[in-house]
Amino acid sequence: MKDNHFETEAIRTQTERSQFLEHSTPLYLSSSFVFEDAEDMRASFTEEKERNIYSRFTNPNTSEFIDKVCKMEGAESGYAFATGMSAVFSTFAGLLSSGDHIVSASSVFGSTHALFTKFLPKWNIETSYFNINDVDKIESLIKPSTKILYAESPTNPAVDIIDLELLGKIAKKHNILLVIDNCFATPYLQNPIKFGADIVIHSATKLMDGQGRVLGGVAVGRADLIREIYLFSRNTGPALSPFNAWVLSKSLETLAVRVDKHCENALKVAEFLEGHDNVSLVKYPFLKSHPQYEIAKKQMKLGGNIIAFEVKGGVEGGRAFLNKIKLLSLSANLGDTRTIVTHPASTTHSKLSKEDRMETGITDGLVRISVGLEHTDDIINDLNQALN
Ligand SMILES: *Cc1c(COP(=O)(O)O)cnc(C)c1O
Question: What distances in angstroms separate CA 145 from CA 95, 102, 142, 176, one per listed residue?
C-alpha cells in the first residue's frame, strides 16, 4: 500500500466511473466487450492495449477486487478465481511442471492436502511434509527439483502459527518460491509478502466476503509469476464471476472494522474457554498459552477469529458438545458473521488415519470455532450450556 491507509484503499480503490458517474461501482454483467474497429481488436488480442476483452480474462468488477487485494497485501499483481481451491490449484498448475517438487507444512486445508496426495502426483509433482513443530527439518526436505515452499498460518483447523520470516529466509537461501495461504489472517492482520512470500493466496469465501454468501479466491504477488498463473487460468477458465467479484469488492470496504470486531469477540470467547472445567486445551494465537504466541505477536496485528479447543471426553465428548449447541451454527464455513462450530475429527478430517490426524494436530476432542459478530454474551452462554 503506497499512498493511503488500509481502510482508505479498501474503500477508495475503484474502477473508472462510467458515463453515469455512479458513486458506488455498478455490476458489470457482461461476458464480452466490444471493439472500435479491426485494428482495436487486433491490438487488444496481442495485448498491445490493456483492456477488457472477455470476462474469462478480465472484467471491471474482478479487476477492482484484485486491485484492492493487491494494495492490501502490497503485491504487484493478481488474478481472481471462482473459489479458494481454484486459486490454490491454478497457482501450482501455472508455476510447476512435471518432475517438480513441493515442500509443505503437513497441516494444510483438507482439499489442499488432497491436491498434494491424490491429484498433483498424476502429473508427477510430489510433495514432502514438515511438521510445524519441527521447522528445523524443512531444509533437509529441499531437493534440486523443489520449486515451492508452501504453508498456511494460522493453520486450519489446529490454529498453529508458522514463522513466516523463517520460511522467507529458507526460500530465499534455496532460491525457491514461498507460497502462503493467508486465508485465516486476511490481509488486514498479516502480509506475508513483507516476510518474503512470492505468492499469497486467499479463499475469499471466508472473512473477505464475511457474510457467508459467495465463493471466491484470489492469488497475488510477483508480477512475472502471476502472469504464468493468469495465462493458465485465462485458458482453463476458473475465473471469478463478475457478480461475486462485485459482492467481494463491497465486502472489502468493511474488512478492517469487521475483522477488528471478530478478533475482539474471539479473544473474549478464548478467555472464557480457557477458564472452563470441561475444556482441556485452548489454542488462540493471542492467548499467552499458545505455543507460538511470540511468533503470532510478531507477524499478526490481532489473533484472528478462529479458536481450536479440546473438549474432555474424546470423539464422543466432541460430538456430544456439538449436539447441545442451540444458537450457534454447525456448518462447514468459517469467517461468517454467524459463529460456527465444527468437530474436524468426525467430519472434515474423518478420512485421515488417526496417525495423520495426530500429525496435523487434530485430536479426537478438537473443536474449531469461527467466532462471529453476535454479542459475545450470547455466544458464551451457548458454549457454556453446551459444555456443562
Ligand atoms: C476454505 C479454505 C480454502 C478453500 O477455499 P474455497 O473457497 O472453499 O475453495 C483454502 N484454504 C483455506 C485455509 C481455507 O480455509
Answer: 13, 8, 8, 10
Nearest to 180, CA basis, from 349, 5, 300, 58: 300
Looking at residue 1, what is its pLDDT? 45
CATH of domain 6-252: 3.40.640.10
Q: Ligand 1: does its nearest atom lie under 6 Å from the Cβ of 339?
A: no
Please state which of the four CATH numbers 3.90.1150.10, 3.30.360.10, 3.30.2350.10, 3.40.640.10 is assigned to the domain occupying 255-387: 3.90.1150.10
In this predicted structure, which of 17-31, 302-316, 347-361 has the lowest mean pLDDT? 347-361
Average pLDDT, the chain: 95
- Position 2 scores a pLDDT of 56
Q: Which of 212, 293, 251, 233 is nearest to 72 (CA)?
A: 251
Do the Cβ atoms of 210 and 248 come closer than 8 Å? no
Pocket mutation for ligand 1, best pick of 183, 207, 218, 305 (most atoms within 8 Å of C-beta):
183
